Amino acid sequence: MIKNVLRRKIVAASASLSAALLLSSCMTATPYQPEVRGQRIHGGYSEQRLANNRFRVTFDGNTLTSRERVEGYLLYRAAELTIKEGFDWFRIVDRETDRDRREYIEPSPFYRPWYGYVYWRPYWRYYRPHYGWQYWYPYEDNPFWADGIDVRTVEEFEAHAEIEMGHGITPHEKNIFDARKVRDELEPSIERPKER
């Protein structure tokens, strides 16, 4: 009987470890990649041609991708696309960054009242100025216990820009960028998908 219990615990522990490793391998920020449905890591870049020298460029990040990274990858894609199309510079005509924010309220994974021990209950003693030493017991309604709720906030960012491309020397204006200079400066910070 003890061997069966031990065997079940080992199987359960190895299953939990396998699941954790599988999840951790999928939990990474969106790399610089084209956005294709069904790919291993959500998000990436896409573009839509509006005219011969105009595109709408988008970069969509997952919940682990910062706003700065999403906007940097969008700028890099605009530079890369400009060079690919045979142009020298690009002007950002219009741009915006969308933020999708969601809050999840779940029971805290650590909230298991007294772990099944009915007669054992923790208490804390703490000091408050002007009130002296106070006691806290879990049977009282007290915000210190936080009602066993875990609140998570998840954000995702998607950046869009309409760009106009041009030939020749880069004009010195606020929203105009030399495509090769942008590509070369941002290249060291670009993370591409890892090979399987």
From TrEMBL:
Domain of life: Bacteria
The name this protein goes by in its record: Lipoprotein
Signal peptide start and end residues: 1-29
Record keywords, A-Z: Signal
